């Protein structure tokens, strides 16, 4: 009885926290969102804490003052606890810390950034962070990535003790990308001289689409956490793909029918342990066969083929057979093709 009462109290508290966050976001909306679109959009990271247990981190996305925000909570043993934690952190920051800072700024208006003539926007942001009390004197941390010949800059700024990451627009060179991101952050902070540089777009994808565009993968992780997430991804891929197949093709499955059938091939000339192995999985509901690459151990071979199935479901590709990319270590077998024309590349989490 006591355990049931405790569970009920936990559900009540969690519902209250999430509901309060939703009410806060609704009150601050500048634009009308599409019908049936959730005010709060949830996703979860997961990592392995031992050989059998998972931990979850909740990430909530919402539109605040016309700007998309993503807030990550801490790690917890269940998704419900992770969701509650992310909601509590969001409220504590935006209603608590940020609300107090806004009141302080009203009594002590923010001064224009004191930089030398001809200083760049990147230098202006650095000086703003050094002089503004909300940033605690910490300087911005920069990174960038290239795609399609264009550069996108990301800057991390400490705001009221909480690390924030801001992404700029894609630009033809690194200097332009850094300058664009710096201007956007200074506008977000409403720094004098930058208040009117940008304005939320009521027709943007973040406002009109069914889902708020996702941030870059692993944006909330450090190097160690990224490796933990990759480990959890591989260890749980088969379970997640099997559940997905069962849900998407439930009407096509007969009672007792498996969603997939597995076969394995080992390299008989290999003398090491575990031996080189390759897995082949047939998914009859979609009429597809997936052949993984050569890798040591049957379990790892199964994971490789499972990743191909997941990639197919994500991309919705056609064709009859999907194979892992060939390599110089491939050995001949009845599953090999005569040439490489039938093989496609596999998505890799990098």
Describe this structure in words.
- Residues 319-344 are annotated as: Disordered.
- Residues 326-339 have a biased composition (Low complexity).
- This protein is 37% helix and 21% strand.
- With 350 residues, the chain is an alpha+beta fold.
- The protein folds into 3 domains: 2-108, Double Stranded RNA Binding Domain, CATH 3.30.160.20; 121-191, Double Stranded RNA Binding Domain (2-Layer Sandwich), CATH 3.30.160; 225-325, Double Stranded RNA Binding Domain, CATH 3.30.160.
- Strands 7, 8, 9, 10 and 11 form a 5-stranded mixed sheet that branches. A 3-stranded antiparallel sheet has the order 1-2-3. The chain has a 3-stranded antiparallel sheet with strand order 4-5-6, covered by helices on one side.
- Helix 3 packs parallel to helix 4.
């Amino acid at each position: 009885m006591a355990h049931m009462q405790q569970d009920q109290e936990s559900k009540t508290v969690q519902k209250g926290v999430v509901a309060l966050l939703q009410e806060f976001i609704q009150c601050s909306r500048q634009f009308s969102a599409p019908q049936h679109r959730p005010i709060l959009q949830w996703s979860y990271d997961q990592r392995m804490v031992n050989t059998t247990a998972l931990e979850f981190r909740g990430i909530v996305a919402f539109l605040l003052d016309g700007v998309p925000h993503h807030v990550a909570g801490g790690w917890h043993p269940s998704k419900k606890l992770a969701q509650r934690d992310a909601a509590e952190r969001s409220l504590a920051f935006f209603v608590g810390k940020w609300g107090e800072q806004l009141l302080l700024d009203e009594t002590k208006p923010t001064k224009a950034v004191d930089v030398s003539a001809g200083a760049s926007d990147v230098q202006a942001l650095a000086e703003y962070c050094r002089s503004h009390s909300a940033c605690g004197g910490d300087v911005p941390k920069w990174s960038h990535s290239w795609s399609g010949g264009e550069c996108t800059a990301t800057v991390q700024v400490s705001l009221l003790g909480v690390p924030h990451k801001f992404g700029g627009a894609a630009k033809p060179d690194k200097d332009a990308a850094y300058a664009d991101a710096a201007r956007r952050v200074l506008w977000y902070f409403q720094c004098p001289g930058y208040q009117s540089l940008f304005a939320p777009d009521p027709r943007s994808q973040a406002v009109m689409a069914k889902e708020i565009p996702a941030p870059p993968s692993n944006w909330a992780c450090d190097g160690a956490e990224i490796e933990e997430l990759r480990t959890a991804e591989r260890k749980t891929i088969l379970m997640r793909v099997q559940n997905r197949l069962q849900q998407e093709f439930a009407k096509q499955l007969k009672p007792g029918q498996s969603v997939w059938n597995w076969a394995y091939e080992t390299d008989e000339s290999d003398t090491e342990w575990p031996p080189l192995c390759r897995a082949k999985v047939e998914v009859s509901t979609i009429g597809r066969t997936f052949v993984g690459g050569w890798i040591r151990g049957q379990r790892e071979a199964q994971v490789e083929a499972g990743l191909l199935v997941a990639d197919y479901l994500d991309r919705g590709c056609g064709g009859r057979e999907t194979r892992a990319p060939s390599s110089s270590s491939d050995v001949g077998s009845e599953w090999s093709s005569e040439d490489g024309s039938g093989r496609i590349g596999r998505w890799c989490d990098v």
